[in-house]
Design brief:
CATH architecture: 3-Layer(aba) Sandwich
Structural class: alpha/beta
Number of domains: 1
Distance between the termini: 10 Å
Oligomer: single chain
Bound molecules: adenosine-5'-triphosphate, magnesium ion
Order of helices and strands: EHEHHHEEHHEHEHEHHH
Strand order of the largest sheet: 3-4-2-5-1-6-7
CATH class: Alpha Beta
Length: about 250
């Protein structure tokens, strides 16, 4: 049983793409899998074919301590269960501001019994991401292969160190996942070399930048449930590498 937070405060770094497609690829290998959508943008929920803001309880109610994750969870057509987001999550920071022990709300609300729990974090280091990092055993850090993105990665690693010092000493960085990789650009390979100097291990699997990945959310189906592509291959390889790395740590 492993709980993995997919986090990076930098927007558009490939968190949701990684969370959704890793959950689907893991579900082919080691069910049951739970995907927890903690972002008000609700992209992972939409991509998983689940309606948000349709009146059902969501992670907004979980973070307001009005429901448990098991109570809001819904089955998808792709082998994993999802705890959906809703746009009401924009209020989470304000709602949680006055709560006692507000960093542990998600940890207390997560169900047992899933082999893999993947948490898609919002693009900030606020209270919602802190909840994910407190609930998680591991952080997976998607980092685009460009120089500016490395700065965002360093910020997240600082946040992880703080969470480890104050709230969750067992939190472990499972690794950096290079996203938006393209062999055509010298820049991408340079960025990859710099990533290797950030500290945590870089995954052997790079996620290639492709038009198919960009278009996939519109089909509301993970890449592994669409015709074979570089994206489905990369995320299946990532799932295998995640399983191997977690086994090595345990
Ligand atoms: N490997 C890729 N190739 C091409 N496009 C990609 C790839 N990965 C992600 N994208 C696209 O880049 C955009 C940002 O990706 P994604 O939503 O996964 O990032 P994010 O970190 O979750 O963003 P946010 O911080 O807003 O939550 C999306 O339009 C997505 O479809
Ligand atoms: Mg996202």
């Amino acid at each position: 049983m492993a709980i993995i937070a997919v986090a990076n405060q930098k927007g558009g770094s490939g968190k949701t793409t990684t969370a959704v497609n890793l959950a689907a690829a893991l579900a082919e290998l080691a069910k049951p899998v739970l995907l927890v959508d903690c972002d008000a943008q609700s992209n992972a929920t939409f991509w998983s074919g689940i309606e948000y803001d349709d009146g059902h309880a969501s992670m907004a109610e979980v973070l307001a301590r009005q429901a448990t994750v098991a109570e809001v969870a819904r089955g998808t057509s792709f082998g994993y269960t999802i705890a959906p987001a809703s746009t009401r999550l924009v209020e989470a920071d304000a709602t949680m501001a006055g709560m006692m022990a507000r960093e542990t709300v998600l940890k207390e609300a997560l169900p047992q019994g899933y082999n893999w729990t993947i948490i898609d974090c919002p693009p900030s280091a606020g209270i919602v991401t802190q909840n994910a990092l407190v609930a998680a055993d591991y952080v997976l850090l998607p980092v685009p292969c460009d120089h500016l993105a490395l700065e965002g990665a360093q910020q997240l690693l600082r946040t992880v160190r703080e969470v480890r010092n104050r709230l969750n000493p067992d939190l472990d960085v499972l690794g950096i996942v290079p996203t938006f990789h393209t062999r055509r650009y010298r820049l991408a390979n340079e960025a990859l070399e710099m990533m290797k100097r950030l500290g945590p291990a870089v995954f052997d699997t790079n996620i290639r930048e492709t038009v198919r990945i960009k278009e996939a959310p519109g089909s509301r189906s993970p890449l592994t449930h669409l015709p074979a592509s570089a994206g489905s291959e990369d995320y299946r390889n990532l799932a295998k590498e995640v399983i191997r790395r977690v086994k090595e740590r345990e």
